[in-house]
Design a protein that fits this description.
Blueprint (H helix, E strand, L loop, with lengths): L23 H4 L7 H8 L5 E2 L5 H11 L3 E5 L5 E6 H10 L26 H11 L3 E6 L2 E7 H24 L1
Parallel strand pairs: 1-2
Antiparallel strand pairs: 2-3, 4-5
InterPro entries: CBS_dom, CBS_dom_sf, CBSX3_CBS_dom, Diverse_CBS-Domain
Keywords: CBS domain
Protein name: CBS domain-containing protein
Length: about 170
Amino acid sequence: MAPSSYQAPSRGDKTDKKTHSQSVESNLSHSLTTVSRLLEGKGDAVFSLRPNDTISHAVQILKDKHIGALVVTDQNGKLQGILSERDIVRRMAETPGQTLPQEVAALMTSDVMTCAPDDALMDVLKRMTEGRFRHMPVIVDDNLCGMITIGDVVNFRLKELEYEALRMKQMIVG
């Protein structure tokens, strides 16, 4: 026996109209997030040095700014390379006690993977993971406009997931 509040569907009911709590668009919305959206919250500050600077100078900047990599630029601000803590540690293992006076140009990575502000954040994360690097300069028209780290991307995505979970909870609770 059906409850007294139950009413069987009638001919005039709109049975063809369906609602979905999830859609392809909502499930993939995180993949549409771009680098520029991350930079909006993070800012566009980029710390750089020149190829002829010493590793000692680079280490001091890394320490003072609490960062893990520096972009290497020419006098016009054009990207020449990137120098990470990992690059320095590897060289220290190869040349103990002789690394700090060396020039940045000798240690920097010249073939730098970059991204653009309109690149999808998940694509950038995939490239960073597959390439096994943690820092990526953001370039627009050959000009440096920011730097993102794998930590920035992961933290940004975690905040998105927290927000999505909160929205779902609000929908359920009302």
